[in-house]
Amino acid sequence: MSTEAAYNQALDYLYSFVDYSLKKSSELAKANFNLERMRALTAALGTPERKYAVIHIAGTKGKGSTSALAASALQAAGYRTGLYTSPHLQDYVERIQVNGMPIPHAALAELVEELKPAVARIPYLTTFEITTALGFLYFARQKVDAAVIEVGLGGRLDATNVVSPQVAVITSLSYDHMAVLGNTLSAIAVEKAGIIKEGRPVVSSPQKDEALAVLERVARERGAAMTLVGRDVLFIGGEHSLDGQVLTIDSKGLPPLELTIPLLGAHQMVNAATACTALRNSGLDISDEAIRTGFAKVFWPCRFEIVRREPPVVLDSAHNVDSADHLRQTLDDYFPGHPVILVFGSSEDKDIAGMLNALKPRLDHLIVTQAVHPRALTPDQLATIAGQVGLTCEVVVPVEAALVRALELAAHGEIVLSAGSMFVTAEVRTAWQKLNPK
Fold first, then answer.
1. pLDDT tens for residues 286-337?
2. Domain ranges of the chain
3. What is the mean pLDDT of the chain?
4. How far is CA 192 from the centre of its chain?
5. Residue 59 contacts residue 172 (beta carbons within 8 Å)
6. Residue 30 has pLDDT above 60, yes or no
7. C-alpha–C-alpha distance, residues 411 and 408, integer Å
8. CATH architecture of 305-432
9. What is 3-297's CATH superfamily?
10. In whole angstroms, how far apart are CA 184 and each of 177, 214, 218, 221, 319?
């Protein structure tokens, strides 16, 4: 069997289990999340997640960027570094990386075969649980020194929460996945705070008071020393351009640290300050120079990723109201006054009206489309919501055709922007690469 045939067969096997990322919110609310299955599976594999240092990162927004920044700095410090994130954009293996390189297709297929006997003995395992165990095992086999592990959903009952981390990190909390996590910020914070471990340090991005009160209470109950960015660690932005932005971090008792990051937007400064603070609280030997070098080299696609400057084409993964607000602010910072053509699609469980209202002041033209994903709303449903918030739109499917149409309309220098759903932007990125092969 060819490598690609074996890889596709492995993916078919993984997707034959329950994959909650593909479930509608009504089904997700009934999910039986617990850690017993995951503990049984990792025990059967020899608890590979205990064989290296772990930085564990939860949050509503920014956890992927924060994870990528931390992993890049660890690699710059000379650590062999694992990075586990979800969902993937274009290829499943993006979820499991060592020193920035995804697990090869052949290696994933081989590990899936190896896992099958253990999986068969544990009922009701999910796609994400098996993939998480696979990532843990691959990192152990690759003899990583440290791994940055991003939570999939929530924290308390997430499959990744079997780790015993050097430091727990909680990025910005806002409203998302309410069917599972709760309808208040305090309820969401309880789930995210579930990754805080007894006696282990915790680092938090700035939070609204309601969420912060929960995080501080849980940290206090578990004897976990908490560092809050924006209070205990301060940062200030410097120059910014399309090439990147400068920030200076001021931690009590330490000299100021000036950093340059290629990730754009004020919210990315928050993520950088959070990642830097997490590294400094991890107990791992990492110098300021390694942090500086790693942050400058980080690459995290579809986060205000500018794939063409003239006329601009920007790929973003904003998919809730808070991130749409950040996106509009970033547009104002980097492209003030530029008209925007938005290619938009969304999952059915999002506040679509809220996202469109946030972006509305910058929109010149709206194209609604639909990703190949079971949770995606139809373009007609999106068009109805757009009309309710006072926006006219054009319906174009599939996503590739929507991108082509947007590029046609951008004849006078308008920005072509993709947002609203990670899945839509992933398809836009693939279509862009097809239209512009290297």
1. 999 999 999 999 999 999 999 999 999 999 999 899 999 999 999 999 999 9
2. 3-297, 305-432
3. 94
4. 14
5. yes
6. no
7. 6
8. Alpha-Beta Complex (3.90)
9. Mur-like, catalytic domain (3.40.1190.10)
10. 11, 12, 17, 21, 18
pTM attached to this predicted model: 0.95
Q: Please state, in angstroms and rounded to a whole number, the distance separating the CA atoms of residues 84 and 49.
A: 12
78 pLDDT tier (thresholds 50, 70, 90): very high
Q: CA angle 238-239-241, nearest 5°?
A: 140
| pLDDT tier for residue 18 given thresholds of 50, 70 and 90 | confident
**Using alpha carbons only, what angle is made at residue 396 by residues 391 and 400, rounded to the nearest 5 degrees?**
125
Helix (H, G, I), strand (E, B) or coil at 397: coil
- Structure tokens belonging to residue 427: 């398809």
**Residue 20 predicted with pLDDT over 80:** no
Helices 399-409, 422-435: crossing angle, 10 deg rounding = 70
Residue type, 20: Y
For the chain, report the end-to-end CA distance as a whole number of angstroms.
Answer: 30
The Cα 217–Cα 205 span in angstroms is 16
Q: Provide the pLDDT for residue 412.
A: 84
